[in-house]
């Protein structure tokens, strides 16, 4: 094995400590720095037993030749400048979602990374869970047949964020999962979003997205900061099978249902009884054995591999850009009373 | 106790047998007839041990002076003529939802019943479950505070109906429950519906309704015939408490959560940190003991009591009319790409 | 089809109404009488719409030549006399568990039935559920391999019975299921029972049975009248697969787990590390699609078929006798501080 | 705040890393050493970013004056020598269960600690979960009334341990919880254990313990290494309320049920109908809000506090000794066919 890739984590807030912990557990990486404008916070995250260096200076980090890559977990508004500086300093970049708050700026970063031959990776964490990887194989491998409907629910008593609404806070998870698992020819073509701010928080706290897919079916996403119960489920209905993912059920995260409703081939004549053409499958459920493990470990591992192999990561800048455009369109719909916005 | 009210059930299809069974178990009613155009089906529903008479003639039933009331469980397209004939024959009427497929005609029936001093009742079965009655008391009694959001899911591998889409098949349940539990001053003012027919059934099989309420919050309903899992839940988030109803969890159908997100009073100044104004409650859950019992028994009992007491039933024709107007508006939205339709 | 078998139900108490309802729904049977010492109760069970005759006289029932079979749901103490009288009158008999409270008397009834060529069937209702039938096929067909352990839990806030303790009230269900699903060469050889009466009810309200099987493994049964939660689960661990039955989970009553712990072949040498010989399977779960339906319908159907075909029913008198002997031994252990009692 | 207590962790196997991690997160402690005979393993547990020192020499650790306390997570067979050496070196001791494999030796350690004025604490981790602390308050504070029955299930597809059977591996958890939550006057007086080794592992893999309590009621514990499903529940039935603890249900770990069966006061006359004296409560369920958090953090915190305050820890050596005597008696029963063994 070659020597590990020197890494700096930038941002010691909510998510940074998870990056620090998982970077340290990844043999292909060597954590050199934790950087935060608040040096005390960086030191506190590292704790009193660590040999990793803390700093408040991004410049110091980017100037360090032992640092080949950075992982950025700062507020979204700072992403553009930080990612650009890192890429210009020749560093590979792993960045939290969203890539930036603005798709145009994000596009520039994607181009810059591609021109520089540097890895630009989004931390779409869920895509690295065994459950989502399994669903991707099922869906893209034909195991579910044609995708008929998708319903995703991600609700919780969540922190009302100071800088983003519930749409930008939670929906990127669902959108990045859909981007990851759907076949390349099943793409969103339009979106409509309804939402409300019933507590007067100054930002949308409950939102419902409808995505029209290129195949004529729809995907629907419910994100909610106000629910006292925590639900994280996604159902992907297909012509052959339906996948139910319940991320909070460790004994059965994924169930593959051989159940569904089909229309049998044949034209629907004006006098035909429609029932004759509908058939029901009420088959078994299959629960695949999936390994347990922290998804962020997979993120770190993929980042290191993409760098080592000189290839684009699975969740590269382009995927981040696609999701950003969806979010922008969804926001536009939300701000216009829920009108359908074409992509 | 006075002598029981003579009843005829009209329609021996999917739901009729349930009316027959529950009417027989209601001491205040005396089941005289089961009427169906298909006399053999009526006889088969009664079975070989019954003294109840079967007939194919509605006229015979309506001409029978021992019949004071009829319960109608025929296809919706026949409701207008049957209900009118029954009211004109001086019979009280219990009718399956929807009252009719057309709100204008329904309005005529409501007027006719009121003019005739006859009971016109909708079989909004769920309103007679102990769970929904309990929620009504909580919500209308102030126990949940201001309603902040409502989310209802009713999905199942359901029969694709020959005459109605999933909206008209399932959403009346959710809409009648909302009509029943919400305070009189919290009313829907607009609706938008997105849906799809991904199996080519010729009718919408998956639909999402967003209702804007007069208070500024939203209610959302998900109805779906294609889901391999069966879910029937409703969450009513309030400023004081949140109610979670899971109709398929007999050990805990209703949970009252003392959890939520609040904005504390005070103006949001431009420089204030928004976090300071948000507070979280993470309190206990209370699961009320509720009696078990078949809801339709409560329907029959309310029908008999309303007749005996000469008053409008809890779920009267006017409630049926309100729900019908909502369904019509929802359909209009569905047929116009999901535009918001004012009520 | 031949003409239906004339049936009388004796006993209109807790369970009798279920027999009445299911007999009426079974085309191969013709319900002639409902008999109860309390004639008013019999009439009340039949209701005011039934053509079935009520009587307080067993003699009248047994003397009726249109009655070919009786279903007995009276207190256990009356079973011996009633079953004997019915058999001597030439009637086939379906009887609630236990066959009688005394194994010796039960043996006489079994002999009498066999000499008379009459069907004597126990209403071991659970054996006629799709779940238990499926488990029987799996276990007896080799799908689970060697049975390694069995754990059954049947607890609830149950009625403290006036005439029996929790052992005789609930454990017959578990014992009859084991008798039904286990291969013929896996038989209980000894039993020990611990119990308590912590509320001073005058009878055991909580009991734990351990059964030693002929194969060296054990089966354990927990029955409890005092639990505020209702649990009905049975786990059958096998060398190939493990079956988990959760009777209260309609969406997934039976799960077949390809998981377990095995010892690989090879002698365990004194110096060998034991770990080397243990292997773990962490495979998939399979949830078979099972039809829904009332088990008692299956009981009635099997009773009618056994009579028509002149064969012993699946749960015949001999199975009732085996279970009775187990219960007697379990009671003996309970009364002697939990000592092991050989069978 | 005074300066932190210097700590060494001895044993870098299965549990040691958890002690290391939680010690580092406890401000009142200062982790000085991780000691393991296998120095490479100790270094690997610390990782490449730690300033904590690794050593293979217990002597070095015990000779270090900066070490005031040790936490021992080595195989049970080594506990006696290690704990004695640590106490004799004047160190406070936190030790994994069981205190030692032999109650007599354990008694010597308890005496030695008390004579030396040093803290001797057992890592009965579950006692430091918010759930168990809450149950302790409920039970000892009278909230459940008289304890009527206890049923504990701890089953899983678990590692077949090389040195202990399932009884010694898992039952200490249940026994330490009972020791912790039960009032001082409710104590086990006898035990019986049934078990089996159906896979030929050379040690019991499935075991059932019955404990007779001084009040006449019983507690029952089911421990099992072979179950494909993971269950960790404990039910404590009381005359006033019943507590249900489901450790694997994060949304509702503890439920307090106002349900039960009571015998009303009054003598049971020979002619009285027993039913008249039994009453049922079917009241509400209350789910207290409990903080989440790692229990081992609480263990570390209690260890530090007990040292600082010069008092016995909550789960002190005497509690460890009581549990050890129970385990020895349970083993004796298991080895003698399940006979009742007095304590």
TrEMBL record, chains A, B, C, D:
Chain ranges of the Gfo/Idh/MocA-like oxidoreductase N-terminal domain: 6-124
Origin organism lineage: Bacteria, Bacillati, Actinomycetota, Actinomycetes, Streptosporangiales
Name of the protein this chain belongs to: Gfo/Idh/MocA family oxidoreductase
GO terms, molecular function: nucleotide binding
Pfam families the UniProt entry points to: GFO_IDH_MocA
SUPFAM superfamilies in UniProt: Glyceraldehyde-3-phosphate dehydrogenase-like, C-terminal domain, NAD(P)-binding Rossmann-fold domains
InterPro entries: Gfo/Idh/MocA-like_OxRdtase_N (IPR000683), Gfo/Idh/MocA_Oxidoreductases (IPR051450), NAD(P)-bd_dom_sf (IPR036291)
């Amino acid at each position: 094995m070659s020597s590990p890739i020197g890494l700096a984590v930038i941002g010691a807030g909510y998510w940074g400590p998870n990056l620090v912990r998982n970077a340290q557990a990844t043999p292909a990486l060597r954590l050199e720095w934790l950087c935060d404008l608040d040096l005390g916070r960086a030191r506190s995250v590292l704790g009193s037993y660590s040999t990793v260096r803390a700093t408040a200076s991004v410049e110091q980090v980017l100037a360090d030749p032992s640092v080949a890559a950075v992982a950025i977990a700062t507020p979204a508004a700072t992403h553009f400048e930080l990612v650009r500086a890192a890429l210009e300093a020749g560093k590979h970049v792993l960045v939290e979602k969203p890539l930036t708050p603005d798709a145009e700026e994000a596009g520039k970063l994607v181009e810059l990374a591609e021109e520089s031959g540097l890895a630009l990776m989004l931390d779409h964490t869920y895509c690295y869970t065994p459950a989502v990887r399994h669903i991707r194989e099922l869906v893209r491998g034909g195991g579910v047949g044609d995708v008929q409907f998708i319903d995703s629910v991600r609700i919780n008593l969540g922190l009302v964020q100071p800088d983003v609404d519930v749409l930008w806070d939670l929906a990127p998870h669902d959108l990045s999962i859909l981007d990851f698992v759907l076949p390349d020819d099943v793409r969103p073509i339009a979106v409509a979003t309804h939402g409300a701010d019933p507590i007067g928080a100054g930002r949308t706290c409950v939102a419902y997205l409808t995505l029209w897919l290129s195949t004529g079916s729809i995907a629907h996403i419910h994100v909610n900061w106000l629910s006292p119960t925590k639900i994280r489920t996604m159902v992907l209905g297909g012509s052959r099978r339906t996948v139910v993912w319940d991320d909070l059920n460790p004994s059965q995260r994924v169930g593959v249902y051989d159940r569904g409703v089909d229309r049998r081939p044949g034209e629907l004549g004006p006098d035909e009884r429609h029932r004759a053409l509908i058939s029901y499958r009420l088959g078994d459920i299959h629960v695949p054995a999936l390994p347990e493990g922290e998804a962020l470990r997979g993120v770190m591992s993929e980042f290191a591999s993409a760098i080592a192999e000189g290839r684009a990561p699975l969740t590269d800048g382009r995927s981040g850009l696609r999701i950003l455009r969806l979010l922008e369109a969804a926001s536009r719909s939300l701000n216009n009373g829920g009108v359908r916005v074409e992509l």
